């Protein structure tokens, strides 16, 4: 009985071992055929790729299955031994316009000036920037071409930090740009606005495709890369909140630090003034130019010489050979009553009604007045939380003392803007030097008139 049980047990064990062997064999065969199929697929794809490379008319190398053109039917087929041409053009997908809001922006930035900086480091950090400080995004078509102009003299230390921070910011913003340092030659009184006029002219000589111009001081660094350096429908003031002003706009008409105008906007105001020697005033003059664009004489006839007190603010003021009559014409008729008249352009007109009752002292003659469009352009600004800037602290430069005549000049902007600007710009080009990270333009711009130089 015991032997019988032992035999049955051995038989069952043998059957189990046999089943395990069969199962093992099946698994091995499955794996074998799977690997074999993979090898066949690999070699078939390899051969197909080689065939497409060796055959110049293969469809597999063409996008979207486009049908190739074989030329005339009588053309001979290429010999198998013929090497394919190495300069065959491959169809590439055209670049799309860069997005309005670039996806790679990081927002608020930490700006500090304690670590040492060198041009060698700036160059290592920006290998994609071309000679002369130029860059264009490789993966999209930029919407504008921007020239960044920096008025400059003896600020090499500041320039290193400016380039260190701005090159990466501009690249993330997908800007096609060139950086121009407008260096004033000599040691005469500094003239920021005139240097910017020179920069505008020289940048266009370098590349006539520039359609946007950013005017930046060398000591101002943006603290947020969402403050996009581009031009807008209206003139742009970027430096809304500087640390030296407690990150607030110092006053509503402030246009200093960093600003931007399109080519057409810049030409419309005749550029910037050339007569602001020393520190201060030119940015307020620019703001006034943007807000008061005088058109040519139109022959508009308005009531006469504005004698005596008319309305609430009526008075006569002599401004550089012209008369300013305030409020006597009423706010609705002539834009808050501020209209300019040139002397001698009076004419006798009758039958046009009586003297306005609210101005009993009006001369019964009429003036031929220019059509003045106040608020011709409105300055736009980024959100105060985005338009923040840090300033590199420094002492005021020698030969850049406050301009004692700046307040008088600011009052006369509308009188002087047609004759003082790009139309009257004179300078001597000393040197143009294309550095790895920027283009340096050294110019001689003259000196202030003797009475101004004496203060």
UniProtKB/TrEMBL annotation:
EC primary class: transferase
Cofactor(s) the record lists: Mn(2+)
Pfam name, any one: Glyco_transf_7C
Domain Galactosyltransferase N-terminal residue range list: 98-231
Single GO MF annotation: N-acetyllactosamine synthase activity
Topology versus the membrane: Single-pass type II membrane protein
Biased composition (Polar residues): 53-67, 79-93
Reactions catalysed, as given in the entry: N-acetyl-D-glucosamine + UDP-alpha-D-galactose = beta-D-galactosyl-(1->4)-N-acetyl-D-glucosamine + UDP + H(+)
Swiss-Prot/TrEMBL GO biological process terms: carbohydrate metabolic process
Sequence ranges assigned to domain Galactosyltransferase C-terminal in this UniProt record: 236-291
Residue ranges of the TM segments: 12-33
Subcellular location: Golgi apparatus membrane
Domain of life: Eukaryota
Family as reported in the entry's similarity comment: Belongs to the glycosyltransferase 7 family.
Identification of the protein by name: Beta-1,4-galactosyltransferase
Organism: Lamprotornis superbus
């Amino acid at each position: 009985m015991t032997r019988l049980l032992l035999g049955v047990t051995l038989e069952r064990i043998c059957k189990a071992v046999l089943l395990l062997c069969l199962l093992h064999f099946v698994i091995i065969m499955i794996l074998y055929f799977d690997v074999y199929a993979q090898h066949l697929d690999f070699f078939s794809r390899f051969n197909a790729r080689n065939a497409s490379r060796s055959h110049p008319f293969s469809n597999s190398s063409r996008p979207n299955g486009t049908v190739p053109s074989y030329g005339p039917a009588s053309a001979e087929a290429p010999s198998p031994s013929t090497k394919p041409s190495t300069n065959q053009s491959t169809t590439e997908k055209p670049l799309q316009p860069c997005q309005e809001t670039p996806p790679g922006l990081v927002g608020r930035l930490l700006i500090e000036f304690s670590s040492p900086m060198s041009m060698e480091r700036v160059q290592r950090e920006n290998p994609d920037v071309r000679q002369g400080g130029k860059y264009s995004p490789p993966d999209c078509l930029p919407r504008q071409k921007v020239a960044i102009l920096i008025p400059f003299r003896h600020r090499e230390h500041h320039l290193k930090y400016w380039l260190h921070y701005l090159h990466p910011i501009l690249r993330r913003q997908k800007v096609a740009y060139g950086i121009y340092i407008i260096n004033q030659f000599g040691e005469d009184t500094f003239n920021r606005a005139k240097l910017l006029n020179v920069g505008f002219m020289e940048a266009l000589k370098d590349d006539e495709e520039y359609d946007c111009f950013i005017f930046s001081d060398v000591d101002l660094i943006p603290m947020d890369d969402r403050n996009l350096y581009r031009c807008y429908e209206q003139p742009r003031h970027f430096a809304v909140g500087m640390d030296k002003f407690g990150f607030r706009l110092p006053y509503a008409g402030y246009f200093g630090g960093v600003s931007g105008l399109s080519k057409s906007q810049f030409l419309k105001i005749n550029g910037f003034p050339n007569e602001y020697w020393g520190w201060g005033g030119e940015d307020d003059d620019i703001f006034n130019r943007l807000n008061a664009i005088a058109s040519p004489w139109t022959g508009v006839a308005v009531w006469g010489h504005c004698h005596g007190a008319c309305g609430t603010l009526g008075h006569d003021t002599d401004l550089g050979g012209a008369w300013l009559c305030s409020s006597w014409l009423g706010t609705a008729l002539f834009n808050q009553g501020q209209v300019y008249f040139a002397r001698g352009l009076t004419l006798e007109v009758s039958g046009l009604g009586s003297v306005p009752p609210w101005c009993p002292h009006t001369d019964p003659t009429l003036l031929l007045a220019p059509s003045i469009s106040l608020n011709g352009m409105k300055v736009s600004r980024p959100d105060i939380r985005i338009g923040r800037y840090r300033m590199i602290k420094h002492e005021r430069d020698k030969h850049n003392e406050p301009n004692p005549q700046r307040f008088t000049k600011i009052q006369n902007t509308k009188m002087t803007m047609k004759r003082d600007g790009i139309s009257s710009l004179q300078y001597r080009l000393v040197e143009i030097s294309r550095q790895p990270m920027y283009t340096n333009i050294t110019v001689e711009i003259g000196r202030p008139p003797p009475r101004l130089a004496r203060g």
